[in-house]
Design brief:
Elements lengths: L2 H9 L2 H14 L4 H13 L3 H14 L4 H13 L3 H14 L4 H13 L3 H14 L4 H13 L3 H14 L4 H14 L2 H12 L6 H13 L3 H8 L10 H13 L3 H14 L4 H14 L2 H14 L4 H10 L5 H13 L4 H13 L3 H14 L4 H14 L1 H14 L3 H17 L3 H15 L30 E6 L5 H10 L3 E3 L15 H8 L5 H15 L7 E4 L8 H7 L3 E7 L2 H11 L10 H21 L4 E5 L7 H12 L29 H13 L6
Parallel strand pairs: 1-3, 1-4, 2-3, 4-5
Helix pairs in contact: 1-2, 2-3, 3-4, 4-5, 5-6, 6-7, 7-8, 7-9, 8-9, 9-10, 9-11, 10-11, 11-12, 12-13, 13-14, 14-15, 15-16, 15-17, 16-17, 17-19, 18-19, 19-20, 20-21, 21-22, 22-23, 23-24, 24-25, 25-26, 27-33, 29-30, 31-32, 32-34
Length: about 700
């Protein structure tokens, strides 16, 4: 008797359905179905609170109706009340063990919270009820994808999507599976079909825009998002995203308009500030930048990013930059970032006394500030080297814990080095590294590989997204490449250096031994790495850089035959300089350095393997030589841009911290560490460096 209400709901006639449903509920107040239809009409009209009240009334009238509990769960899900929704779903399936939608929703919830085992159990139960249901198949494909098996996901989803082209869940899951395989055009086609139907949404357009961007079509990506800017879902972040896409497309005027909108809404957001500064730079609109930023700073003098942007408009360390810093310090006298800028300007202008005075003020405000501490030490070195060394010794004595004392001992060695007391510096560093051995990882035994036994090199698919495997031996300063890539927008996976590293073959020294002894299956290892990768990637709209702890050429048996999407990038410097840097500054990977001679022998073996890859083209390799550019953010970014054939933005000055030992500085220690350097002479020549 409610056919007219159901018909209005199907046609999407919200007002008509609501009028009819209200009349039915008034006429039949004890009929649960009338209240259920009223809830559906209220939900269609956007009144979620009234819909919940109506469905609760229906449940009170028919508490054993599983479908009513299912409807309530759907409302709770729309309101993001996941815990209550799970309880309602459990009640619905308890009342009707064959209620398929209940199991589907519960499985979807389990997927959303990352409980793949529970989702798989619920999906199996749903499949026993109806194995051909499109929602069930969509779940099976999604689970395969979340387990890292994109090929299986496509095999499950593609045939079913052809059979059920009007099922959005299938098409959405298939699009994600194609994207995971790197088949971006196919993924785009799947998402477009949804966008052109009744399921258009901001989330869908964001995914489509990302696919277009990844295919080098940023102007089309921006066009996908522009219509959403006039909807209630438009946020400053969306305006920024459109502006960034317009920048990529070279449409700088359009980019400026969108980015200005985002900037005025969120002046504290650094990505927005950085992007609008780039638009102004391209347009030559320095005066507009000054006016806009000055106006914002009047209203928001506490936002450090705005001050940094204002400084970027002016020539570095010029009079105009000085004036900006003076205004900044007047607005916030104890701002450490403002004092840092003042210290940098004074130092660049050769005003050593003024730079030291500012540094001492910084240390008062923030004890242990690295750049200020180093500036004070440098000033002391210029006046009295012995006094500088005594000053650092007093800092060692005053350090609060063992870790701080060890860090200050490294600085003591560097201060001795700068004072020309090379023997004292070497003794300090050697003793410190020997003391750290029990807390470090033993050097993995290099195994290498017989190139004749390597599998054929599989070329990548043209549409696949490459994954950069980044590595550098201790002393290579690879960390500066990692920092540059990360700040430039690449997604740096540095979890191998954290407390929760991935448990894959690239993390475990035992895997090197197993591969060398042919006790492990390279294909299984590659599949394991690929399965874990989605869980390590926070955002899929950025390329991934997997920063490795170590490298051994035996790993080529995996990457050559089973990881065609990978590109290997290795940082190198003169091996003797690498040894000195490892000794003086440590390394990102906490490897044990028992003695200079032992470290040199190991370093020679691993660098010989790098030379093998380079000389024999064993794998696609970008060999980056950092000699002479390791302290220059622009030069490092340029080297990365050339290697990757993609623009990489430079890090800001000061990002890398204090300068390290200069290229060729190892020769000052030739008489002290001669046997260690002799171990490295042959591999230095192989890598293109002089023997002496």
């Amino acid at each position: 008797m409610y056919e007219n209400i159901i018909d209005a709901l199907r046609r999407g006639a919200a007002e008509e359905a609501l009028t009819l449903a209200r009349a039915a509920a008034t006429e039949h107040p004890e009929d649960a179905q009338a209240h259920r239809l009223l809830a559906a009409a209220q939900r269609m009209g956007g009144d979620e609170e009234a819909a919940m009240s109506s469905i609760d009334r229906a449940i009170a009238l028919a508490p054993e109706d599983a479908n009513l509990h299912l409807d309530r769960a759907a409302l709770l899900l729309r309101g993001r009340k996941l815990g209550e929704a799970s309880e309602a779903l459990a009640r619905s399936s308890g009342l009707d063990p064959n209620l398929l939608p209940s199991y589907v929703l519960q499985a979807q919830l389990a997927v959303a919270r990352g409980d793949l085992d529970e989702a798989e159990r619920l999906t199996r139960t749903a499949a026993r009820i109806d194995p051909e249901d499109p929602q069930v198949i969509a779940l099976e494909g999604t689970l395969a994808l979340r387990r890292g098996d994109a090929d299986r996901a496509v095999a499950i989803l593609a045939p079913s999507t052809e059979r059920h082209p009007d099922q959005p869940a299938l098409r959405l899951a298939l699009g994600h599976a194609y994207a995971a395989k790197g088949h971006l055009a196919f993924a785009e086609q799947a998402f477009r079909a949804l966008r052109d139907g009744p399921h258009d949404s901001l989330a869908l357009r964001l995914m489509l825009a990302d696919l277009l961007r990844r295919q080098g079509r940023p102007e089309e990506a921006a066009r996908e998002l522009v219509p959403m800017l006039s909807t209630p879902e438009a946020t400053p972040a969306l305006h920024r995203m459109v502006g960034e896409l317009e920048l990529l497309a070279g449409r700088n005027e359009q980019a400026r308009e969108h980015l200005l909108e985002a900037l005025h809404a969120q002046p504290q957001d650094w990505p927005t500030v950085s992007a609008i500064c780039e638009a102004w730079r391209r347009l030559g609109a320095a005066e507009e930048a000054r006016r806009t930023l000055d106006a914002l700073l009047e209203a928001h003098p506490q936002h450090v990013h705005l001050w940094n942007a204002r400084l970027m408009v002016e020539p570095f360390a010029g009079d105009a930059a000085r004036a900006v810093v003076e205004r900044w310090r007047e607005a916030d006298p104890d701002s450490v970032p403002a004092l840092e800028s003042a210290m940098t300007i004074h130092a660049s202008a050769g005003e050593a006394d003024a730079a030291e005075a500012v540094a001492r003020r910084i240390v008062e405000l923030r004890p242990g500030h690295t750049a200020a501490r180093d500036r004070i030490i440098d000033a002391l070195l210029q006046r009295d080297a012995d006094a500088a060394i005594d000053h650092v010794r007093s800092m060692v004595d005053a350090a609060g814990d063992l870790q701080q004392k060890r860090e200050m001992r490294r600085i003591l060695g560097r201060t001795m080095d700068q004072a020309g007391r090379y023997s004292d510096a070497a003794d300090t560093w050697v003793a410190l590294n020997a003391e750290l051995v029990p807390d470090r990882i033993a050097l993995p035994r290099p195994r290498g590989v017989d190139a004749s036994l390597l599998p054929p090199l599989i070329p990548p698919e043209p549409t696949s997204q490459r994954v950069l495997l980044l590595w550098g031996a201790p002393g290579s300063m690879v960390e500066r490449l990692a920092t540059t890539l990360n700040l430039s927008g690449a997604q740096l996976l540095a979890d191998r250096y954290g407390p929760r590293p991935p448990e894959d073959f690239l993390q475990q020294p035992a895997a090197i031994e197993a591969l060398a002894d042919r006790a492990a299956d390279p294909g299984v290892m590659a599949a394991q790495w690929r399965r874990l990768l989605p869980g390590r990637v926070a955002r899929r709209d950025r390329p991934a850089v997997d920063w490795l702890l170590w490298w051994d050429n035996v790993l080529l048996s995996v990457v050559r035959g089973h990881m065609p999407e990978a590109l290997l990038m290795i940082a190198v410097r003169d091996p003797r300089d690498m040894l000195m840097d490892w000794l003086a500054a440590g390394a990102p990977a906490p490897l044990a350095l028992e003695s200079p001679e032992a470290a040199a022998k190991w370093l020679a073996m691993v660098l010989d393997q790098v030379a093998d890859i380079n000389e024999r083209d064993l794998f696609p390799l970008a060999l980056l030589r950092l000699d002479g550019i390791e302290d220059d953010p622009r030069a490092l970014a340029s080297a990365l841009s050339q290697a990757l054939r993609s623009p990489v933005a430079p890090a800001r000055p000061g990002t890398f911290g204090p300068r390290r030992l200069a290229p060729g500085h190892w020769r000052e220690y030739a008489g002290l560490l001669g046997p260690a350097f002799a171990e490295l002479a042959d591999v230095a020549v192989r890598l293109g460096y002089p023997r002496e």
